[in-house]
Fold:
Amino acid sequence: MNLSYRIYYVFLRNLVSYKRFIIPTLVISIGQPLFYLLTFGIGMGAYVGMFGGKPYLYFLVPGILISSVMLSATFECLYGTFVKMIHEHLYDSLIATPVSAEDAIAGDIAWGVFRGVISGGLMLIVAIFMGIFPVSLINIFLLFLIMIFVGILFSSMAMIVTSFAPNFDFFNYYSELIITPMLFFSGVFFPLDKFPEWIKTLAQFMPLTHAVNISRAVFLGTYSSSLISNFIVIFVLEVIAFYIGIKSMKRRLIK
Amino acid sequence: MAQVKAVKLTKKFDQLAAVDGIDFEIQKGECFGFLGPNGAGKTTTVKMIHCVSPKTSGELSVLGQPANIDNRSIKQVVGVIPQEVTLDIDLTAYENLMIFARFFDIPNPEAKKRVNELLSFVELDNRKNSKIDELSTGMKRRLLVARALLNKPQIIIADEPTTGLDPQARHLIWQRLRQLKRQGVTLILTTQYMEEAEQLCDRIVIMHKGKILKEGSPLNLVEEEIGKEVVEIRISKEEDEKLIEQLTGLNCGHERVGDTLYFYCRDGHEIMKKIVELSLPSYLNRPASLEDVFLKLTGRSLIE
Structure:
């Protein structure tokens, strides 16, 4: 792993180019989660009523928040990276400088994380406007750390997919077969305990389940010992995904 | 000591040898050209020199260091004008150069100074704030030249720098490259244009199918391989046997391609006299060029 501080330069390049797209991307990255929040939160919430002694939105918001981190980080490292690699030849010019392939890829993973945090942060602002507050100010800060922590995992996973994607259409498999099921079976919208055992077991293999557990615990300030295993799962997966993502992309970039 | 030295340098993609055991040395301050048709291995060779493609076997050193893909110190002092336009289309011309300067750890005030200098060097100072897609092909190329110079390179690699440009833009780029050479920069050029090689290069190698066929100065190669003059005669295959018989003994080599019979001569006087005597309908007498060498060595048939 030939990583250096130049990751920051790659991140910076993305930031400079981002200012041109900031408005459309903000609209897009907030659109879908906001849609879920309104339909499920307010529409369904009216039927569901109270959930563990609090309005349903308190259950839903931390789940949506971390899902939006997942979605934004994923899409940035799928489509964003693919465009930069294939259509803009950006990586070719990067690796001709002292920036290594690893720096370039890690810089893009960092960028995916940033985009994820922006989306999650926007959701948090919207939730606060709706009167749904995290338990304390410190927990708001902690939530941002969690978003970064989770963003690294989903950016890296997307990077692996991008590393062997022949074209744009290929991403549909990943988003429809992996990301979308995760959104519905990870306890974002409703608790998993009414599901049959095998689905509950399956859910434990979905990284989003663990991310949602952490996010919800930090948002509501209800900590339990099972959080430790949630952290370990995400951490181990992200170390592996980061490593494979970089190695595999490097193999694609350097021939 | 040679700035770039390759010994038995080989690059294989799967089983195909794109570069097949070549040797060369490039000295400081010279312009060294790799000539060859498409797929000859020129670009693969220069990619290995600037450390973005790993070799399969052999040795390659640049400025005394082994050229491998993780060698940042070589990349720090090499400037690359790539074949494809790899400018950052999301950024303006100015931003492109400023960000690139970052990649070389050039501090901001110094970067601003160099970027402005280089934009005027390539005559783009009035397009500073243009987006990339507002620039013409020639302007994009010039911006790539400027970008390659940001790090004050000791070696510049120009991979087909003028492909697809109009004559004006081409000549401007040639002038700039010659100017850099006068400043002592080593130039490594790949090209399919013989005129470009003649204009710029002190020494060239002609590559074909991953191998180096010939090496020398453009002038010497023409003299050695072709001679001074070429006579082209348009004549059908049926008639040419008699003609060749009549024209032999005049110290000219000959070759037939399509509808044309080529004679390569040290001196074209004798053969021209004969041709006038025979009153052949269609012929051309011209000085020999690098293009003749190129075509003789790499074959006149199409390479796809």
